[in-house]
Design goal:
- The chain is of the alpha/beta class.
- It has twelve helices and 15 strands.
- The protein has helices at residues 50-60, 131-139, 156-162, 165-176, 179-218, 226-328, 331-413, 415-421, 431-448, 455-514, 558-571, 592-605, and strands at 16-25, 28-34, 38-43, 82-90, 107-115, 120-124, 127-129, 151-152, 518-525, 536-543, 549-550, 580-584, 610-615, 627-634, 637-642.
- Strand 10 (536-543) and strand 11 form a beta hairpin.
- The radius of gyration is 50 Å and the shape is flat.
- It starts with 15 loop residues before the first strand and ends with a strand.
- Mean pLDDT is 84; it is low at 1-13.
Length: 644
């Protein structure tokens, strides 16, 4: 993206926001909000969606985190997959150039898309751009959506009263375009710190070089023990190689013995598994036979019991008829019924005996099943245990073979070292023990130090280095003095710029407060020797004839805090770099009189800039230059109506 050039700090750019288009954003299904230069007043009841308009502007300008939604996808209208915010800017040519130089259109459109899946992107004139390009573009115009002095969202006045003096000052610097003064001070400090660090390094090097000179003066001959130690170290290195070879040879022998044992165990396991499988098969056949026989006996028992039930029902019926015919005196019929009852009783006894026989048979089946099932389960468990052991043995055999292969590989890798070690050395010592001794001998050699044959030449070189470091130290010291002067000058420039800014601000601040019967002062605090680390901005305000006191969240009432913040905002309006600014609920907790006074001041101060003013209350609007927009909400959907 081409570089954007704006006016000097403290002046407004010529760009202005013409229209906001919302699609599926929060309570808006579709809305077009036209804006005009000067004061744009947005009013409507609470919950209508007024604050959502300002939130949409901030999100489109690059704001990532919002209080309304911890995630941007929470701002998408419920039931929709995607939302779009479009800002339409005036891009007409002024003095032969367009405000946004890379766009050839008279209007510049910036759209931000929000998707439910968490994917967000921007389009500038229908071409996709990234976050860095958006922030770089609008930073050139002073439009920072996170600076509450430019865009003051709902409840931000309370937040401003809780902001530290240091943060207030930074917000003011960024809003009026004075950040470059602070950046230059920081740049000078960083450069000075780098020089100081270099100076410390050179001083340390000088100390070391001086020590080295003394060391080399005393260094002459230390070769006496070296030859013996080197010869011993050579022998130990050969022994260390053969110790590694012997270790691998013994490991190979051990693994091969383990492999033989495990392969034999696996063969035994497989044979036992085959025998167990045969017994499982026999048990399964017995269980299948039991199932068939028990089913047949069960059906027979069911049939006998069913028949017995019928016989008992018949006997009951015959006894009822016997009683009836006895009462009538029909003795022949009674005799016949009694004959049939005898037959039924005889049949019932036969059936009881048959049922008892079948039940005994089923009981025998159950007892047989228990023994067969116990044996079957025992063999199945044994089969699983054998299978588990088989798998373990197989894994162990595979692992052992891998170890044998690994050891053979190591032995192969040691072949070249064996040749280098020459004649075999039989040793029982461990590899680590030999290495420790090698390290001990090496430490003795290192303790002797590396002594060059031409000590005089080395000493001469160190002398030359020491002189060069001394010369460089003088240069760095001079640079440090210049760096301190530059830092002091830039700090004074920053302090003067801020002081002049606050002097100008105080004139307007006091005048605005006097219009509502109050007094106030904005002052720079915690400036020590021109430093900026702890420097801050404090506001002092007094109401109802009282002396000004520190402005904070706990001292003033809600209405007094709102009046103080609005008075401060009005006092810096002409110095703001951003061509667009906005305040939500500017009249929070204000009494009617102060509300009307602040509103009138807003109208008079916004003639040359573009401002968005949001309020849920009713204001007396007589100035025809005020652009009025009303927001209403019906059936969960916000709608915008342009009054004038």
């Amino acid at each position: 993206m081409p570089t954007i050039t704006t006016k000097e700090p403290g002046t407004s750019s010529s760009i202005w926001l013409k229209e906001i288009i919302l699609e599926n954003f929060m309570s808006y299904e579709y809305a077009r909000i036209p804006l005009k230069p000067g004061l744009n007043l947005i009013s409507g009841p609470n919950g209508a969606g007024k604050s959502s308009i300002l939130l949409a502007i901030s999100v489109a300008l690059g704001q990532i985190y919002t209080e309304r939604g911890k995630r941007l996808r929470d701002l998408i209208r419920r039931g929709n997959e995607i939302a779009r915010i479009t800002l339409v800017f005036d891009n007409d040519e002024k003095n032969g150039r367009r405000p946004i130089s890379f766009s050839d259109a008279d209007t510049f459109m910036l759209s931000r898309y929000l998707k439910n899946d968490g994917h967000y992107w921007w389009e500038a004139d229908y071409k996709q751009i990234n976050y860095e390009e958006v922030t770089r573009l609008f930073k050139g115009f002073g439009l920072d959506p996170d600076n509450m002095l430019i865009i003051m969202h709902q409840n931000t006045m309370e937040q401003f009263s809780l902001t530290s003096p240091q943060e207030k000052l930074k917000l003011l610097e960024e809003a009026v375009g004075f950040s470059s003064y602070r950046e230059k001070v920081i740049e000078a400090r960083n450069r000075l710190e780098s020089i100081i660090s270099e100076d410390d390094s050179i001083s340390e090097l000088l100390g070391r070089a001086e020590e080295s000179l003394g060391y080399w003066k005393e260094m002459h001959e230390k070769y006496l023990q070296r030859a013996e130690l080197e010869e011993k170290r050579s022998w130990l290195k050969r022994e260390e190689i053969w110790a590694r070879v012997i270790k691998q040879e013994r490991a190979l022998q051990s693994f091969e013995e383990q492999l033989n044992v495990k392969e034999y165990a696996l063969e035994s396991n497989l044979a036992e598994m085959e025998d167990t499988k045969g017994k499982i098969k026999a048990g399964r056949e017995k269980l299948d036979s039991w199932q068939i026989n028990s089913k047949e006996s069960f059906y027979e028992l069911l049939h006998r019991e069913k028949e017995r039930t019928k016989v008992e029902a018949l006997a009951e019926h015959l006894r009822e008829n016997e009683l009836i015919f006895s009462e009538r005196g029909e003795h022949d019929e009674v005799q016949k019924i009694r004959e049939r009852l005898k037959e039924a009783d005889k049949r019932r006894q036969e059936l009881n005996e048959a049922i008892s026989t079948v039940q005994s048979k089923l009981g025998a089946f159950e007892r047989s099943l228990e023994l067969t099932m116990d044996a079957y389960i025992t063999y199945r468990v044994k089969e699983e245990v054998l299978r588990f052991k088989r798998d373990l043995l197989g894994a162990d055999i595979k692992a052992t073979k891998n170890e044998i292969e690994r050891v053979n590989q190591k032995l192969a890798e040691l072949q070249s070292l064996k040749r280098k070690a020459s004649e075999r050395i039989e040793t029982e010592r461990k590899h680590s023990e030999i290495e420790n001794e090698i390290g001990f001998v090496g430490a003795k050699i290192e303790a002797l130090g590396k002594i060059p044959e031409e000590t005089e030449e080395i000493y001469t070189n160190y002398s030359k280095l020491f002189e060069e470091l001394q010369d460089k130290s003088k240069i760095v010291a001079a640079n440090k003095r210049e760096g301190l002067k530059e830092l002091d000058a830039r700090q004074k420039t920053w302090q003067k710029a801020i002081t002049d800014l606050l002097d100008s601000t105080n004139s307007s601040f006091q005048q605005i407060l006097s219009g509502i019967g109050a007094t106030g002062l904005a002052r720079l605090v915690n400036v020590v020797d021109g430093g900026i680390e702890n420097a801050g901005l404090e506001l002092h305000v007094g109401f109802s004839g009282s002396q000004p006191v520190l402005f904070d969240y706990y001292t003033q009432s809600g209405g007094e805090r709102s009046v103080s913040v609005m008075a401060f905002l009005l006092s810096i309006q002409q110095m703001l770099k951003a061509p667009f600014r906005a305040v939500d609920e500017f009249d929070l907790h204000m009494d009617p009189r102060n509300r009307e006074e602040i509103y009138k001041m807003m109208i008079s101060s916004m003639k040359e800039s573009e401002c968005l003013l949001i309020t849920p209350g009713q204001l007396t609007v007589t100035d025809p230059s005020v652009h009025i927009i009303v927001v209403q909400k019906a059936y969960g959907k916000s709608e915008v109506r342009e009054v004038r």
